[in-house]
Write a structure and sequence with these properties.
Length: 230
């Protein structure tokens, strides 16, 4: 089976196409956002950090496959390096390039992504120890947010962690970013206020919910009675 045949990805929305620079009729506002995305993607390519919106809270992004960039995220957040970060990608198909999900995990991902869910699967060889704290499994995030996915289409995998200093509250507005975070990033993509609900972190192969958040009830129902294949 191929990715195109099986993953059921949502095609880019009109707004995503505009934000990716592919729509000559984009509004001035979307054109400005496209400029923000280009600048943010360029910063990620240089190994720098950025802030970007998701359907939960604002995220702190860096090249998730660059161990040095990942280390900068830990340093800026003041986060214990044994506490892993997740891998943000634009689609389930993209996730499969960097991870080794089982058929059950893949079925779960197709059911809930894009969405406010972090799916824990076996990592691929390209994923550095720095991201996972040396673990063999990694959380994948496919945000259900036009700006985030437009960015991820440009950058490839980025770190998916909240844009706050560890031990402080998550940020739902760019105006609330701490001075430490704001001064430590190369750019901020402002998508307005975000809902603030945490993603649910789940290992579908083990049938374990590590953190309850958005859609937890639907996830529990799926784990208890997964749809039959075919």
């Amino acid at each position: 089976m191929t990715d195109d045949e099986t993953d059921g990805e949502k095609p880019p929305t009109d707004r995503e196409s505009a934000l990716s620079g592919r729509d000559p009729g984009a509004s001035d506002r979307d054109s400005a956002r496209a400029g923000e995305l280009r600048a943010a993607a360029a910063a990620v390519g240089r190994g720098e950090l950025i802030v970007y919106p998701t359907e939960t809270v604002y995220g702190l992004g860096a090249d998730a496959l660059d161990a040095e960039a990942v280390d900068r995220v830990f340093e800026l957040k003041g986060r214990d390096r044994s506490n892993p970060l997740s891998l943000g990608v634009a689609s389930v198909s993209d996730a499969r390039r960097y991870t080794r999900p089982t058929e059950r995990a893949l079925a779960f991902a197709r059911a809930f992504l894009p969405g406010p869910v972090t799916v824990v699967v076996e990592r691929g060889d390209a994923v550095p120890d720095a991201l996972t704290g040396g673990r063999e499994r990694v959380g994948i995030r496919v945000p259900d947010h036009d700006l985030a996915r437009a960015l991820l289409r440009r950058t490839g995998p980025v770190t998916a962690t909240s844009a706050n200093v560890s031990g402080t509250g998550s940020v739902t507005r760019t105006a609330d970013l701490s001075d430490r975070i704001r001064e430590g990033v190369a750019g901020v993509v402002d998508g307005g206020e975000t809902p603030g609900t945490e993603s649910t972190v789940v290992d579908p192969e083990a049938g374990t919910i590590h953190r309850r958040g958005a859609m937890a009830g639907a996830i529990e129902a799926w784990l208890a009675d997964p749809p039959a294949e075919g």
